[in-house]
Amino acid sequence: MRENVVIRTVVRLAVPFIQIFALYVIVHGASGAGGGFQGGVVFASSFILMTIAFDLAYTRRRIGSRGTMICSALGIAIFAGVGILCILYTGNFLEYGVIEAALGIPHLHGYLIDLVEAGIGITVMAVMTSIIYDMANRGGRSA
Amino acid sequence: MRKKALIAVIFIGIILFWAVEDMPAFGDPESPATRHTGAMYIERSYADVGIDNIVTAILASYRGFDTFGEVVVIFTAGMSVILLLRRGGRL
Q1: How many CA atoms lie within 13 A of A4 on its CB side?
Q2: Chain B residues with CB-CB distance to A under 8 A?
Q3: ipTM entry
Q4: pTM value > 0.80
Q5: Burial class, B32, CB count within 10 angstroms (exposed 0-12 / middle 13-18 / buried 19+)
Q6: Which of A112, A120, A107 is nearest to A96 (CA)?
Q7: Among chain A residues, CA nearest to B76
Q8: Residue B88, by phi and psi: left (phi above 0), alpha (psi -120 to 50) or beta?
Q9: What is the pLDDT of residues A9-24, one digit of tens each?
Q10: What is the Cα–Cα distance from B41 to B55, expressed in whole angstroms?
Q11: Dihedrals φ, ψ of B59, to 5°?
């Protein structure tokens, strides 16, 4: 199902800006309004828009089912990895201060929070996209 | 059946509106939520965490384990949708 040429052209123009804005929201989480959950949903909305304007196969060529599953696990792995890194530096789980104290790099705490936000964003984006793939798919094989 | 549902909704609605009376006013500086931990976060979060956004400081640092649980919940929801809706093919 392909919509008419105006919708397809507008979506083709809008999607890069939506994705840039999503990355901005994720990265801006530490210093202003934003964060991983919001940015991940905005990023997924660009794929949802592509699915509405084009078809499922078009969006699947950008990020496939395997891609969404790998990304959804990868985001949690980043979050848990940062937490376990804190344990390796003899702190508690997600106690970022011990890494900053051990390495002596200023503002490392903020950068680790950015990394955690990025992990949240990757997971939320992948899960939202995966749900849309399964709900838009009308039977048949979903590889 | 619809009449019973309507009665239940109206009854629960009356209880909820009754409970709203006891809530503190919006932005009330004397409410319990702003008197205890709120002031502590505003005073100490920059010194503790070193980022400007207090909400993110609470979300990712003070309540980091809770946020980890939230992300796992979202992941579990995605896996549940895949298990329930995805037909054919390997997982």
Answers
A1: 1
A2: 48-53, 55-57, 59-61, 64-65, 67-68, 70-72, 74-75, 77-78, 81-82, 85-91
A3: 0.85
A4: yes
A5: exposed
A6: A112
A7: A127
A8: left
A9: 999 999 999 999 999 9
A10: 9
A11: -60, -45
